[in-house]
Design a protein that fits this description.
Elements: E1 4-6, E2 15-18, E3 25-28, E4 42-46, E5 53-57, E6 75-77, E7 84-85, E8 88-90, E9 95-99, E10 105-109, H1 116-127, E11 132-139, E12 145-151, E13 158-164, H2 172-184, H3 190-198, E14 199-204, H4 209-214, H5 239-251, E15 255-262, E16 269-271, H6 281-297, H7 320-328, E17 331-338, H8 354-363, H9 365-373
Parallel strand pairs: 3-5, 13-14, 13-15, 15-17
Antiparallel strand pairs: 1-4, 2-3, 4-10, 5-9, 6-7, 6-10, 8-9, 11-12, 12-14, 16-17
Length: 374
């Protein structure tokens, strides 16, 4: 059987240049469907059992985040359930995967995918709980459903908002949400129980359904980077942000978490709203208390490595977290997880992974509860 490379499935993306010789396969990472963003890949190789593969990504050096390939290891799976890291190198221009599959069919991806089918299953299984209402906020550019989970009593005084996958290729974000929702609905989890005694949670597990299905890293079906649309979203270009922002102003917000992944930094960290000109000492103390509590809740979280404080620019208020702090005066954080591994506690087999993101999602409830009780 000759080598076959395919990507016509949920979130699949690659451009095949040549694949006649398994030792000299040449690929290009495909652009986001409506933007010049090159980073996400996900494809299937068939006919390569026990065959050494040399997969060269010729345009890696001109990708959106070329430094992300330094010390990066791609993920692979035979069953799309268990994912593992494979030997990957980068010479400054070309990224190369060298791997000998154990089975005839193998998948390679930038990070462990979170499928649209799993997304729907997360929504549907959650709504079976008497604590949950599933809400349709509206439709995306291409007509996909934009759904929200309301977890807890909507009459609660405090409102917690959690959104994920503004950047669709940052799939660790929805894995994180899956873990958080599981913990909230676990009757044996004391942090979940107490959080729901104190607040209602409004959770949007996937802010960018179109980009997710299309295999985009960063943009929706109109080419919009949703995390730069918060100042003036429109139904034509960024209905996903428009609809969520509209609902937030209708309901209110006391704590906001925007879940992401970072291409370069091999750490878990948060970015706050320090660059806002109105950021007060009291807000700084509240943010630091959350960070300190999160370090206790999860050894995977740290605050030595991150983005640091950047100067205020007009772009600042186009981003989710600072925009929400500005609009509501509340604690608002962007949580970043690595595409690579956690350098503080590396896992050579899996690196940072979906299951580890799930566990981090569960642990977030401890600092959230502390913040609600403060």
């Amino acid at each position: 059987m000759s080598i076959k490379i395919s990507h016509q499935f949920d979130a699949g993306a690659i451009d095949v240049l040549r694949a006649e010789d398994p030792s000299a396969i040449e690929l290009n990472i495909r652009k986001d469907s409506h933007a010049d963003i090159v980073q996400w890949f996900y494809f299937r190789v068939q006919g390569a059992q026990a065959t050494p593969l040399n997969l060269r990504f010729l345009n890696a050096g001109s990708s959106a985040y070329p430094d992300g390939w330094i010390d990066y290891q791609a993920v692979a799976s035979y069953d799309r359930e268990t994912w593992f890291r494979v030997p990957t190198s980068y010479d400054g221009k070309v990224m190369t995967i060298e791997h000998t599959p154990e089975f005839d069919s193998v998948y390679y991806a930038y990070f462990e995918p979170y499928s649209w089918e799993r997304h729907l299953a997360l929504l549907d299984s959650a709504q079976l709980s008497p604590l949950v209402t599933q809400v349709d906020l509206g439709s995306t550019v291409e007509g996909r459903d934009l759904n929200m989970l309301v977890i807890g009593d909507p009459d609660s005084e405090k409102k917690v908002w959690v959104i994920a996958r503004q950047h669709p290729g940052e799939t660790m974000a929805e894995w994180f949400v899956e873990g958080m929702v599981e913990a909230l609905l676990d009757p044996a989890n004391p942090f979940g129980r107490q959080c729901l005694n104190e607040a209602v949670f409004y959770v949007v597990p996937n802010m960018n359904p179109d980009g997710s299905v299309r295999g985009n890293l960063r943009t929706n079906a109109a080419g919009a980077n949703l995390n730069r649309e918060w100042m003036t979203p429109t139904m034509e270009r960024s209905p996903e942000v428009f609809l969520v922002k509209q609902k937030m102003h209708e309901i209110g917000c006391d704590l906001f978490l925007d879940i992401h992944g970072d291409e370069g930094l091999p750490y878990v960290f948060v970015a706050g709203s320090e660059s806002l000109e109105t950021f007060s000492a009291a807000q700084a103390a509240e943010q630091q208390r959350f960070v300190d509590d999160f370090k206790v809740a999860s050894p995977d979280f740290q605050d030595l490595h991150g983005y640091g404080v950047t100067p205020f620019t007009p772009e600042t208020l186009t981003m989710g977290s600072p925009h929400i702090t500005h609009a509501f005066g509340c604690l608002s954080l962007t949580l970043e997880m690595p595409f690579k591994d956690n350098a503080n506690d590396p896992d050579p087999e899996a690196g940072w992974s979906g299951p580890r993101s799930v566990e981090l999602g569960k642990s977030i409830l401890q600092p959230v509860l502390r913040s609600l009780l403060a």
